[in-house]
């Protein structure tokens, strides 16, 4: 009887692991998105992964493979980072994305930007940091419930993802692959628990990575969103500059801006740009 009971447990564990691996495998809805370097297509999944597909016993062995590996590349433009979206022949397609980095600042600006996107019915992807979510739970619920927006992950502590603590812009990076994974999954898991929402894309604080963390994230089923065009230059550009930059984005481009920097021209620049682009028949899409 004891031997029979052990065999039953073994079958249960094996089946659970197989289901988890299947959940992380590419689905039939995956389409290619070529990044700006013209490297091999990176996956863009059109449907969000169900909240119960992240299984720790699959993720942990994946991370094990990257412990002790020495990074050899650093930046925003590494293989494995998605820099563009699928295009439609004969129709220009753009994806606007905006980061909310901290909490308690820029409330008027972010509300103004969201109102502009809603006014013009422009889909957008919003990358939200844990600190911003903590301060703005009602707005978080509002945008999660709005099908116009894709709500995605901007990290827990707003740190660049590094396997060795490498900083970016004076902000210290994560110190190991385990720390990098915690930076991503901390915010993701908190949002899943509090709001029942699954974040399937991540953009790190500063949007900087080393190659080890990029590979580890991709192997763990975490997709990294890069960008083609910096639309507001770190929330320092004027409304006129932002409008011109967005209007000149190439077909398939991902635009990267900020949504909660007080005094920035982001909302006004977006209003001017999307009004003109929609009149030209430009299609906007979100990353899901």
UniProtKB/TrEMBL annotation:
Source domain of life is Bacteria
Q: Name one GO molecular function term.
A: hydrolase activity, acting on carbon-nitrogen (but not peptide) bonds
Q: Which SUPFAM superfamilies match?
A: Glycoside hydrolase/deacetylase
Membrane-traversing stretches: none
PROSITE patterns under this entry? NODB, TAT
Task: List the GO biological process terms.
Answer: carbohydrate metabolic process
Pfam families membership? Polysacc_deac_1 (PF01522)
Q: Which positions make up the signal peptide?
A: 1-33
Record key words, sorted: Signal
Q: Which InterPro entries match?
A: Glyco_hydro/deAcase_b/a-brl (IPR011330), NODB_dom (IPR002509), Polysacc_deacetylase_ArnD (IPR050248), TAT_signal (IPR006311)
Residues covered by the NodB homology domain: 92-285
Q: Does the keyword rRNA processing apply?
A: no
Listed PANTHER family: GLYCOSYL TRANSFERASE-RELATED, SECRETED PROTEIN
Put simply, this protein is called Polysaccharide deacetylase
């Amino acid at each position: 009887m004891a031997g029979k009971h052990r065999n039953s447990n073994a079958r249960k564990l094996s089946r659970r692991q197989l289901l988890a691996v299947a959940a992380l495998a590419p689905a039939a809805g995956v389409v290619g998105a070529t990044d700006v370097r013209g490297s091999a297509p990176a996956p863009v999944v059109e449907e969000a992964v169900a909240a119960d597909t992240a299984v720790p016993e699959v993720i942990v062995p994946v991370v094990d493979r990257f412990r002790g590996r020495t990074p050899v590349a650093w930046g925003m433009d590494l293989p494995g980072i998605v820099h563009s979206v699928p295009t439609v022949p004969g129709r220009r397609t753009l994806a606007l994305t905006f980061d909310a980095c901290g909490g308690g600042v820029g409330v008027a600006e972010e509300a103004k930007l969201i109102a502009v996107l809603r006014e013009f019915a422009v889909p957008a992807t919003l990358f939200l940091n844990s600190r911003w979510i903590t301060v703005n739970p009602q707005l978080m619920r509002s945008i999660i419930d709005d099908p116009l927006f894709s709500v995605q992950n901007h990290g827990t502590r707003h740190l660049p993802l590094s396997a060795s603590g490498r900083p970016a812009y004076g902000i210290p990076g994560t110190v190991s692959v385990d720390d990098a994974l915690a930076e991503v999954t901390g915010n993701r898991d908190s949002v899943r628990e509090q709001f029942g929402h699954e974040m399937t894309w991540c953009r790190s604080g500063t949007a900087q990575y080393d190659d080890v963390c990029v590979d580890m994230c991709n192997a763990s089923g975490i997709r990294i969103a890069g960008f083609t065009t910096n639309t507001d230059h770190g929330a320092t550009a004027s409304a006129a500059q932002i409008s011109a930059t967005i209007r000149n984005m190439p077909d398939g481009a991902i635009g990267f801006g900020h949504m909660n920097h007080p005094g920035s021209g982001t909302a006004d620049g977006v209003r001017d740009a999307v009004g003109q682009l929609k009149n030209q028949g430009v299609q906007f899409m979100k990353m899901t």
